[in-house]
Amino acid sequence: MSTREVLQEFRALSAGERKRVAEVILTEEDSWIPESFRQGMEDIAAGRVMEMDDALSEIPPHSAKK
Description:
By secondary structure, this protein is an all-alpha fold. It is 62% helix and 0% strand. It has one domain (3-63).
């Protein structure tokens, strides 16, 4: 089936059916999501993030004088 045919069939669906198809694509088919984005989402969920202003105003640990 070509892309054009898929889109034609998708457009022929009711609004509710189109919504359900979109939900399935976004939640179950994630091969189009870059790995770096998925890693970022995992970092956020695990709390491994900080505010950008804090990150920019603090001296990184590796550059501190000994």
